[in-house]
Amino acid sequence: MFQVIKNEPTSFIKARKKVKLPKIKSAWEDKNISSIRQDLRKYILENEQDSLCVYCEKKITFDKRYSNIDHFKTRNIFPEKSLVYNNLLVSCNTYNRCSSVKDNKKQSIVKSKDDYLKIVDVVVENPDNCFDYLITGEIVAVNSKGQFTIDTFNLNDSSLIERRLFIFQSLKYFGNLSLAEIYTSFGYEYKSFIKSIYPKLKEL
Ligand SMILES: [Zn+2]
């Protein structure tokens, strides 16, 4: 996870102002909003998230098969935040992790407003203070907030660990490059893992 700086686009400001009841759950389905949803996914992904899932950092496109606009604070519990721009983040659609786990009534460990205080909110705080990464590809919590967040989004899903491990093994051959050069060559996918693991690589 990485910190996100939000910058609400004019198109969304205009659209939400046309919605008669913006503080109810179904405001998100209003035609003024649904008609710009794809453009909004593209805008958020490309301008605010380096084209990455905000939770697992997998590279994704704005195609609705691969990504969705996630209400970080879910509309079921926070209907009043349905059209609050800072509550909108783009998540991957991967089965068994990220928004699909958080918002799954049976699977989710997030059940109440208070539970949201236990999760890292990347719009208001830097997640680097809550996590560390291991060269085995696992993300580990530095504090209880980090642990609850890992569990909420299933950030140690086996497919994710495998992917991070693969990147670590590839990075071994590029030990003399700077971090900026690594990002240029590899892209930003799993950028927090790379940032954390790259200095450790040099110590090996
Ligand atoms: Zn994800």
Automatic annotation (TrEMBL):
Taxonomy, superkingdom:
Bacteria
Return the InterPro entries for the record. HNH78-like
Official protein name in the record: TIGR02646 family protein
